[in-house]
Amino acid sequence: xxxxxxxxxxxxxxxxxxxxxxxxxxxxxxxxxxxxxxxxxxxxxxxxxxxxxxxxxxxxxxxxxxxxxxxxxxxxxxxxxxxxxxxxxxxxxxxxxxxxxxxxxxxxxxxxxxxxxxxxxxxxxxx
Length: 127
Description:
Layout: E1 7-13, E2 23-29, H1 32-48, E3 55-57, E4 64-68, E5 72-78, H2 79-85, H3 87-90, E6 95-97
Parallel strand pairs: 2-5
Antiparallel strand pairs: 1-2, 1-6, 3-4, 4-5
């Protein structure tokens, strides 16, 4: 989430409180477009690791996107929606997991372009 400038990212350890998931990851975005961009980024990173989401909800509106990965459920909210639903208050008994700063994901490096050499045909020698 931090790669796409998500705001106020929190990880809550909810395993002792529910059987729905072990962790909730919650983050905010400043717009619907950014909410969807964060969700797309999470999906591409996790899918690249072979961890496809079981379900994704809310992509069409972009106000609240929920991504269910089984043991981990990610919630990406537009800021005003996050304030309204206040999941942190709902899960206030959950342990807050510290987040280490993530190193930015490097952009893929393009393969060097092959140099194409064209040769002019040699003039035939007259004998």
